[in-house]
Amino acid sequence: MTIEYSTPYRRTSKIPAEPGTPYFIEKGLGDRAHLFGDLVTVYAGGEQTENAFNFFTVEGPKGDLIPAHRHDDTHEVFYVTDGAVRVFVEDAEGRQQERLLTSGDFGFVPKSCTHAYRIERHHSRIVGVAAGPGGTFERFFENLGTPTDQVGLPPRPYVPAPEKFGIVPQRFDVTFLPDHRWRTR
């Protein structure tokens, strides 16, 4: 038996909208969204944690580099559970590095550090956690992408309308840096 909640973001969700409510979610049944070729599943967000942190997964096929971006108020964790993901990061002094993370590997990106990633193997999965004084950004994915009830990857990549890129990122502490160049390779 599962309990369904209604939230400000969805008609039905397995995540209670108010903090302080214990809950459990089966694998893959959190709030899901398609963005580009990926499936993002949110299991806990700002509403449940009083904006202390969020917890989500991103899974997808081998693909293109996610554009360089930063979160001015949010620290971000990358933990790879399946496959391989290459993470690119630039620290506050401009030093760049990249690292290939495989199953069981962990990466941490402090707030205000420019970063990007690329899924290097098909069917890779990242567990993400974000936390910071400004709140959490997990609702970015369904606002830029599209909410879905599907458990799998999108049948076709979902590319957001151009006007969404001008509105949605600012609401969720995401600053895209389209002119950023990685010098690590």
Name the features.
185 residues; mainly beta; 7-stranded antiparallel sheet; 3-stranded antiparallel sheet; 3 helices; Cupin_2; Cupin type-2 domain-containing protein; RmlC-like_jellyroll; QDO-like
Task: Please provide a brief summary of the model.
With 185 residues, the chain is mainly beta.
* Global structural class: mainly beta
The number of strands is: 12
**What Rg, in angstroms, do the CA atoms define?**
16 Å
Uncertain runs are none
Number of helices: 3
**Coarse morphology:** globular
Strand count, sense and barrel status of the largest sheet are: 7 strands, antiparallel
Protein name: Cupin type-2 domain-containing protein
Organism: Actinomadura napierensis
Pfam family, one: Cupin_2
Domain Cupin type-2: 60-119
What topology emerges from the helices and strands here?
Blueprint: E1 31-35, E2 38-44, H1 46-49, E3 54-60, E4 69-70, E5 75-82, E6 84-90, E7 96-102, E8 106-109, E9 114-119, E10 124-131, H2 140-144, E11 146-148, H3 162-171, E12 175-176
Antiparallel strand pairs: 1-2, 1-11, 2-3, 3-10, 4-12, 5-8, 5-10, 6-7, 6-9
